[in-house]
Amino acid sequence: MKLAIVGVGAVGRSVLDLAREYGHSVTAIADSESAAVDSAGLDPERVIARKDDEGRVGSRVPEEALKSEYDVLIEATPTTLGDAEPGFSHVTRALERDRHVVLANKGPIAERYGEIRRAERASAGEIRFEATVGGAIPAISTIEDFGPEHITAARGVLNGTANFILTRMAAEGLDYDHVLAEAQDLGVAEANPSFDVQGTDAALKCVIMANVLSGGEREFTLADAEVEGIEDVPGSALSLASEDGRTVRLIGEATRDGVRVGPRLIPENGTLAVSGTRNIVQFETTHAGRLNISGRGAGGPETATAVLSDVGRLE
Amino acid sequence: MKLAIVGVGAVGRSVLDLAREYGHSVTAIADSESAAVDSAGLDPERVIARKDDEGRVGSRVPEEALKSEYDVLIEATPTTLGDAEPGFSHVTRALERDRHVVLANKGPIAERYGEIRRAERASAGEIRFEATVGGAIPAISTIEDFGPEHITAARGVLNGTANFILTRMAAEGLDYDHVLAEAQDLGVAEANPSFDVQGTDAALKCVIMANVLSGGEREFTLADAEVEGIEDVPGSALSLASEDGRTVRLIGEATRDGVRVGPRLIPENGTLAVSGTRNIVQFETTHAGRLNISGRGAGGPETATAVLSDVGRLE
User: Fold this and answer.
1) How many domains are there within chain A?
2) Helix (H), strand (E) at residue A109
3) Distance (Å, rounded) from C-alpha B129 to C-alpha B117?
4) What is the pTM of this model?
5) Which of A30, B149, B164, B305 yields a CA-CA distance of 20 to 30 A from A49?
6) At residue B283, what are phi and psi to the nearest 5 degrees?
7) Which ipTM did the prediction report?
8) In whole angstroms, what is the distance from residue A164 CA to residue B67 CA?
9) Which of A1, A22, A145 is most worth mutating to test chain B (most B CB atoms within 10 A of its CB)?
10) CB-based contact (8 Å) between A152 and chain B?
């Protein structure tokens, strides 16, 4: 397949890097200010070298990548809330041209699911978005394979930064502010960590799962989610929990009735108590009990793997 | 889709019971001595009532079910080794008629994988066998979605009976023979438990994963597997392991180089230490680290769920 990548962050770069290994070629790539297009397939190393040296991927304007001939648009621009732009327009423009779209960007699926699905129905193209939930964890395709009507709830640990902080607080008996600073030094937390520690990122992932579980009967956005972050979890709460064989994790839950995210007490050695930056998704199924999937929930190659699995499912 | 089910054990019955909920109809079903066929769709309750009352599902001979008009043959007869008959012939005959086949029976995939794949290539039908590994756990489809070439190893706890026995031995400090008798009373272990406790069942599942990981480059059968069971694990080994924060599990491992199954020391609170009859499959991936999937590895409805997910993937 010919892939056009929009967004040259960690995920876009990794898709560019790994596409050939998966049997695809990247024929166009765009960052916010430039683009490179080659219908014979771009050289990943040359594109990345230019991006690193000159701050741009090529000498064309982004519009040329969007208008180029490709089979699948890879939407890997940063997640934005509300109107979810410019990701939303990238997706709908590709669908209008009867092209497939694979998203790593959560915004359009979490904030404008109904519109995206309507655009898909009017198109010969298809959308897929495994990479928006849990990085390498196949959450969305598992819901699809079981059938959304056979899953009553999805819950889990869906933000590696928050989980790293809670894990360290529990292990070292340290306070939130101290561990956050450490996480920022390690590059696990961003300079502005609010998206992760306030629960927004986990909530978006749960909103996406709620939309898939609902099968279009009800549409959810971030505004429908009850969200509480981890900023107010005192170190003493983790010590007290530990004395009782329990710990605290930021747990998100999605059902057909809504989305809730917040710090919860869970068994210290239980399935949900994944450590560090790992994620876990737990499904309650109608006929097969509980299914757990854990793995790396973020990272360039990990998320690119989910993107490229989606591309494989389009074939 | 119109389903023809061969085999009326726990899995066959559950597929019959759940098919309608998944949008399919069962138009034929056969046990070893009888069959029922109705192109308009069989009534599951009536079939099961007759089987329970008279020991047969209908008044026809099994051959009529195999020759009937269906879209997908569900092969749910008991796993047999060596020539894997009669399952093998059921599969190849369906493929010769250009029909799809979904297997819950491990025999044909573990013992005659190359022949089955060759028969599939000559057919317009397709084979799927998610239910042969780990019950409700989507092991095979995860390998397919990642691409076999992107997974270097699959390992895990793949036999619920053996795991139940080891879990109880560790928790209660009891010996193998005592716990086996208890498991037999509970119906967790069969009267002849050798298939489970000697590691054969786990090995077959690993052989199947090795065949999928190899993508046909090398073919494995049970004869290629190094297998050791749990019968010789003394209760004292579990006590000693526990003092060191570890426990024993029957771990199977599949790579492109071979299959090994045996009791292994693992961390007591580690990911692989699932309890009771639960199963877990752990994949080592090339670009996305380690992925774990745990859930119910056996049971009628659980395995039927995997069968019906496979049917869904054929559409």
Assistant:
1) 2
2) helix A107-111
3) 12
4) 0.96
5) B149
6) -110, 135
7) 0.95
8) 58
9) A145
10) no
* B173 and B104 inside one domain: no
Determine, for residues A294 and B296 on separate chains, whether the beta-carbon distance falls below 8 Å: no
φ, ψ (nearest 5 deg) of residue A68: -75, 170
Q: Whole-angstrom Cα distance, residue A73 to residue A102? A: 6
Verify that A50 and A70 share a domain, yes or no. yes
Chain B interface disruption, residue of A142, A167, A293, most B CBs within 10 A:
A293
Which domain, by its residues, includes B67?
Answer: 2-135+301-314
Structure tokens at B14: 């559950």
User: pLDDT tens, A174-211?
Assistant: 999 999 999 999 999 999 999 999 999 999 999 999 99
Residue A135 in contact with partner chain B when CB distance is under 8 A: yes
Check which CATH number belongs to the domain holding A226 and give it.
3.30.360.10
Separation of alpha carbons A1 and A72, rounded Å? 7
**Joined tokens for residue B62:** 């099994």
Measured CA to CA, the distance from residue B24 to residue B72 in angstroms comes to 10
Q: What is the pLDDT of residues A102-115, one digit of tens each?
A: 999 999 999 999 99
Return the pLDDT at A286.
Answer: 97
Percent of chain B with pLDDT over 70: 100
Q: Would an 8 Å CB–CB cutoff place B137 in contact with chain A?
A: yes
CB contact under 8 A, A145 and B312: yes
